[in-house]
Amino acid sequence: MTNSGRIEDVPIGGDVIRLGQFLKFAGLLDSGGNVKEAIIDGFVTVNGEVDRRRGRQLHVGDVVTFAGRSVRVRP
Predict the structure, then answer these.
(1) Which label site among 28, 49, 52, 61 has the fewest CB atoms less than 10 Å from its CB?
(2) CATH for 17-74 (3.90.1720.10, 3.10.290.10, 2.60.40.10, 3.40.1380.20)
(3) What are the Cα distances from residue 18, in Å, to 1, 3, 6, 27?
(4) Looking at 24-68, which runs of residues are DSSP E strands?
(5) What is the pTM of this model?
(6) Which keywords accompany this UniProt record (predicted)?
(7) What angle do CA 27, 30, 35 make, to 5 degrees?
(8) pLDDT band at 1; cut points 50, 70, 90
(9) d(CA 48, CA 31)
(10) d(Cα 60, Cα 41) in Å, to the nearest integer?
């Protein structure tokens, strides 16, 4: 695990963001193609559960995990 179980806060400047956008914004993935592939393959979790919807609406407080790194949506 790259962050030793630590959760990073990532402010989005609002209340809602889509999962695919957030993965890029938070620096977990660098391209839309990589985001799509990671989500479809089930490598991304939201609040501890696999979610395969790139357009899933994330809200303040949601925690997204990919490749051992966890980030929490902040306003």
Answers:
(1) 49
(2) 3.10.290.10
(3) 25, 23, 22, 14
(4) 44-46, 49-50, 57-59, 63-66
(5) 0.92
(6) RNA-binding
(7) 100
(8) very low
(9) 23
(10) 25
Helices (H) and strands (E) in the chain, counts: 2, 7
* Tens-place pLDDT, residues 18-74: 999 999 999 999 999 999 999 999 999 999 999 999 999 999 999 999 999 999 999
Dihedral sign, Cα of residue 28, residue 57, residue 51, residue 63: positive
Token duo for residue 59: 């809200």
DSSP 60: T
Beta carbons within 8 Å of 39's beta carbon, 6+ residues apart: 19, 20, 23, 51, 52, 53, 54
